[in-house]
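User: For my dataset I need records formatted as: sequence, then structure tokens, nothing else. Please produce one.
Assistant:
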Amino acid sequence: MPQKDRQHMTKSISASFLPALVLLGGCVAEVGVPAPPPPPPVAYVAPAAAVTVEVAPPALPVYVQPACPVAGYIWTPGYWAWAPAGYYWVPGTWVQPPQFGVLWTPGYWGFVGGVYLWHAGYWGPHVGFYGGVNYGFGYGGVGYAGGRWVGNSFAYNRAVTNVNVTVVHNTYDETVINNVTINRVSYNGGPGGVAAAPTQQERMAAQERHIPPTSLQQQHVQQAAANPALFAKANGGRPAIAATARPAVFNGAGVVRARGATAAPPAQAHTFDRTTPSANQYQARNNGAYQPPRHNAQAGARPPKKQQAKQKQKQKKPANKNREQGAGSH
């Protein structure tokens, strides 16, 4: 091809592509690159969710609900947690929610692959699946019927919730129809467990943004794990501290014991002498079941010499004087 024709063809091609290049440049200048979509919400899963146990948790204890201490607090039911020494009871308690509009989804034990897996509880805009376990007090196995948010205020259903109307004024009465079998089973699936699967609404709730337990809730669990009397091996499934009015407050008013349980132990710790094994030694000997130490006198040891001398002096006193003291004591 002659050079003159070649130059003419080059000019024609350049002229034909020029509008497209100009148009393309305008598009680049006018249309920005869209921002990447936000990551999908991830359901909160606490580290405790990795706990697996080969033994089923005990039945839920029977207890009454303490009255709500402060308007706005939400009830969190008690449950059996696991430690190396065995199952221990985390008392139910009233908790201040981390923010307005959120509800508590209780944790639950589920039988999966031959073991019991703990699914941790969380805060969220809706109550999710908690194994169909009937924890009571509004947690009948599905949802929560103990109260609801009305704007920035929480209203309590007096039909299933224990509230003092002098403290809590935002209440209502709504009959709750419970279609779940009334029992004390504390786990889902497996031999004797609750046969329940999440509903479509509960599956949607699992995909929402969740908030982990508050610092007070975590302190509540830690304090329960440090209390030997709350272990199932020590209380036979009937904890002396079944519920509390406030989290991490295990003594005083508002502490409720389970039906059939003895009174709650005193607040002070046990004192040990040199001849008494420590609490850790008792736990090792009894496979984690704590037993209070017996004092030397209860164990049959001889009292000190001064105490023996006092006992001999008492024995030498006249019998008629002893009878007078006994009569005066009636």
